[in-house]
């Protein structure tokens, strides 16, 4: 299952720094969007907002039309209670650059942990689910390994399996290959490509891998200074960017 994502006039500042400046964006359910742009342009902040880790100063976030920070009560729109926020957050999964696996737990337990303790599944069911997703990311033979014995690429694949095991409708990937040795990047990108092709989730991918963004996403957003500078089908944004700033950026990074 996948959900649409809508941002309405989202602004966010840290002190004097305006990090997001009135973002309007609608991502239909099942779409894969690549988010590219210079460092410091607000890409991670946007994902953290979607993950409910940050709260916007103004504007609305909607998941499948449902407001994240407010809820309906007695026919009125009121600030969301913790239970509402938890439920909305449960629809979204995120994979970070640094995988933060529990070092004292096997790959299997790392993945089974949240289904067990957040979703309340029994041990058997949680572990069966963990096996299913570790298998999906090609780690069916590493279930009993501790993170210390896994390569960076394998750890990141455990990180992806861990997010998938919560069966999110929207998946956010923040530079998940940036900390990996070059020879390990391809395997992780391949998994993301397969997930995107399945169309079972809405995906937003922040990446510096331009070839990957071009070939594996439906749509690319070029982000700069807290604004969406360009938004179009990936083939067009990479092939014939409409904005001079996008062209300059692509020329500098490719
Ligand atoms: P990107 O992911 O595109 O590199 P970020 O969203 O991480 O950009 O950051 C955008 C801007 O917000 C940067 O100038 C960064 O220094 C600032 N910023 C991010 N998080 C915080 C924070 N928690 N407190 C203060 N400033 C922050
Ligand atoms: Mg970032």
Gyration radius (Cα, Å) is: 18 Å
Helix content: 25-40%
Report the total helices. Answer: 9
Strand content: 25-35%
**Biggest beta sheet summary:** 6 strands, mixed
Oligomer class: single chain
Bound molecules: adenosine-5'-diphosphate, magnesium ion
What is the overall pLDDT average? 96
Order of helices and strands: EEEHEEEEHEHHHEHEHEEHH
Shape: globular
In the sheet with the most strands, the strands line up as 8-9-10-3-11-12
Helix/strand-derived class? Answer: alpha/beta
Give unreliable regions as ranges.
none
Q: Please tally the β strands and state the result.
A: 12
Cα separation of the termini: 35 Å
Describe, in plain words, how this protein is organized in 3D:
- By secondary structure, the chain is α/β, with parallel strands linked by helices.
- The chain is built from 9 helices and 12 strands.
- The protein has helices at 43-50, 82-89, 107-117, 123-136, 152-164, 182-198, 210-216, 234-239, 244-253; strands at 5-14, 17-27, 32-36, 58-63, 66-67, 70-73, 76-79, 92-95, 170-174, 202-206, 219-224, 227-233.
- The strands form 3 sheets. A 6-stranded mixed beta sheet has the order 8-9-10-3-11-12, sandwiched between helices. A 4-stranded antiparallel beta sheet has the order 2-1-4-5, covered by helices on one side. A two-stranded antiparallel sheet has the order 6-7.
- It is globular.
- It binds adenosine-5'-diphosphate (ADP) and magnesium ion.
- Magnesium ion binds next to helix 1.
- One of its GO terms (cellular component) is plasma membrane.
- This is Amino acid ABC transporter ATP-binding protein (PAAT family).
- Pfam families: ABC_tran.
- Keywords: Amino-acid transport, ATP-binding, Cell membrane, Membrane, Nucleotide-binding, Transport.
